[in-house]
């Protein structure tokens, strides 16, 4: 349970890097009314644009991030990766990577899994949006490969965070979706006659398969469904809800 109603939480796995800005927002501290109460930062929701703009302003201000230095994409649950060379709004990408300081990468979520990666060796970062489709497409592993190809990243130098998303017990799927997941990441609930998928474990395993050491991977202890007083949940709120934002970037040291 989150004790304070803060606008964001900082993943502890990144605590020892003073120039790294990494955070995931909560639903607290904004101006939106129900069902978007209160810090809805989702551009593609039916909340008023003025509310969303003010919420994003508050979040970026609290992180001391200039909105003009933010990169985001309209996400499509695919496996395309964008190498960000300038901030802005893009379309069709579910993962963003950069080695440019003062370029802050963002993904929006409300049950899907946000994954943030910091390459401490080459000073590069990645932000990934992985729902079940992105997870099955192994977007996390593809993003680590893109970091290697673009920036010479060594996975052993990377630190990563698997963020707040839907928990396994809440994520019911049918056999057509469950069949695309490894056995270790699903279980069948006989009472509900549904499969239950563990998105956090599936994406953490991809990070490890890509070569990132397990002690350098943090996993959020929170669930968008079980803790939806602190986080938006698309499923728990029947699709009419706000979005959180996960952000990562390096502040230049000069």
Record the SSE blueprint.
Elements: E1 8-9, E2 20-25, H1 49-62, E3 70-74, E4 81-83, E5 88-91, E6 95-98, E7 104-109, E8 113-119, E9 124-130, H2 132-136, H3 139-151, E10 158-162, E11 172-173, H4 175-178, E12 186-189, E13 194-197, H5 199-209, E14 217-219, E15 244-250
Parallel strand pairs: 3-5, 3-7, 4-6, 10-14
Antiparallel strand pairs: 1-2, 2-15, 6-9, 7-15, 8-9, 8-10, 11-13, 12-13
Regions with pLDDT < 50 over 5+ consecutive residues?
none
Q: How many distinct domains?
A: 1
CATH topology descriptor: CNF1/YfiH-like putative cysteine hydrolases
Order of helices and strands: EEHEEEEEEEHHEEHEEHEE
Cα(first) to Cα(last) distance is 37 Å
For this structure, the quaternary state is single chain
Total strands: the figure is 15
CATH second-level architecture = 4-Layer Sandwich
Could you say which overall geometry the principal axes of the C-alpha atoms support? globular
Residue fraction in strands: 25-35%
Question: Which strand order does the major sheet show?
Answer: 1-2-15-7-3-5
Q: Structural class from helices and strands? A: alpha/beta
- Sheet with the most strands? 6 strands, mixed
Family: Belongs to the purine nucleoside phosphorylase YfiH/LACC1 family.
Keywords: Hydrolase, Metal-binding, Transferase, Zinc
Pfam families: Cu-oxidase_4 (PF02578)
GO molecular function, one term: hydrolase activity
């Amino acid at each position: 349970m989150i004790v304070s109603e803060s606008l964001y939480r900082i993943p502890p796995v990144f605590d020892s890097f003073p120039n790294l800005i990494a955070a995931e927002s909560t639903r607290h501290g904004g101006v939106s009314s129900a069902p978007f109460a209160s810090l809805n930062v989702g551009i593609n929701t039916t909340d008023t644009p003025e509310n969303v703009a003010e919420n994003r302003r508050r979040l970026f201000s609290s992180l001391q991030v200039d909105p003009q230095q933010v990169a985001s994409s309209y996400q499509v649950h695919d496996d395309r990766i964008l190498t960000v060379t300038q901030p802005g709004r893009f379309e069709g990408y579910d993962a963003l990577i950069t080695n440019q300081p003062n370029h802050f990468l963002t993904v929006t979520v409300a049950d899907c899994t946000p994954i943030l990666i910091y390459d401490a060796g080459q000073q590069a970062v990645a932000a990934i949006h992985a729902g079940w489709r992105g997870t099955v497409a192994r977007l996390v592993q593809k993003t680590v490969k893109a970091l290697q190809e673009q920036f010479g990243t060594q996975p052993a130098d990377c630190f990563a965070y698997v963020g707040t998303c839907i928990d396994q017990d809440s994520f019911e799927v049918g056999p057509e979706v469950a069949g695309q997941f490894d056995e270790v990441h699903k279980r069948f609930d006989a009472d509900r006659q549904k499969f239950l998928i563990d998105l956090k474990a599936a994406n953490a395993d991809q990070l490890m398969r890509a070569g990132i050491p397990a002690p350098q991977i943090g996993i959020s202890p929170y669930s968008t469904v079980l803790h939806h007083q602190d986080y938006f949940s698309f499923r728990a709120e029947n699709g009419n809800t706000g979005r959180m934002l996960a952000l990562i970037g390096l502040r230049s040291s000069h």
